[in-house]
């Protein structure tokens, strides 16, 4: 008896079966073609997705898209060739940049988290190609209020985007140090920087960069990711560099503004273990992060994103860190109230997808 006849019997397709040998062959070929289509033609459908179901931010205008694509990232350390080499060595051309954004906030600020979730999920929906590039998390210390304990628990179950640190809530008493240290430990595994299975070589880290951001900062995620693609993947420090003139914080050594700054993964791991950060983390958190790196001779690849990162200007006079809105913006800071958020979102066309009939 042939092997095909044996197969028919195992499948209950003997004599009298309504499914003939030719039908079975067509079914097998069809299933094989479907598998080939799904796993080869559309492999990204099976990638583990981030916090978002889609990608990243909307440029406010067509001109903004061109500006983001054409604008190089500025390496203020002068190591452009080193940055290019580091990027090439860290990832293959087909790999995209991966960023974890930790938005520091307070347990009680439900309204602000709801606003930010809405903003970033809409950006993600409009650019799904960047779904795997950005993870956004909300970061606070131990929840002590009985009311917050219940409501935050529901929020965490529903959204899965909250990181609770083991610390007393604070701004400049070590919260940022605890954040970087916690992230370094949490993702230092086989899906982070552990050994690759079977190859004997280390797997790439889960994230290329970890960004600390304030909850009054509006990030345009597509512009952020596009600028980071041109940056080094090691020993990199990215943000709005301060002091930007002799009138502000001068002569304090340079650091990146706390509105939102990113460290490459190797620097995040260094912060988690370094004596400099462990023994001295009480002080203005953005200044102190720069202080650690400066004292240790770290972060030789520094990227000052002025004028694309800035504070909201409003009626205040312009300065090197306070500007009017611009199409190629990466981040706007000091959005302290709903009116400022509405003005900012209106400029960047955040509600462009809304049909007039909806109002």
From TrEMBL:
InterPro entries documented for this protein: Glyco_trans_31 (IPR002659), Nucleotide-diphossugar_trans (IPR029044)
Recorded superkingdom: Eukaryota
Pathway connected to this protein: Protein modification; protein glycosylation
A Pfam match: Galactosyl_T
Membrane-spanning parts: 20-41
SUPFAM superfamilies: Nucleotide-diphospho-sugar transferases
Gene3D superfamilies xrefs: 3.90.550.50
EC numbers, comma separated: 2.4.1.-
Record key words, sorted: Glycosyltransferase, Golgi apparatus, Manganese, Membrane, Signal-anchor, Transferase, Transmembrane, Transmembrane helix
GO MF annotation terms: hexosyltransferase activity
Cofactor dependence: Mn(2+)
GO cellular component: Golgi membrane
Compartments it resides in: Golgi apparatus membrane
Its membrane topology: Single-pass type II membrane protein
Family: Belongs to the glycosyltransferase 31 family.
Protein name: Hexosyltransferase
Species in which this protein is naturally found: Oryza glaberrima
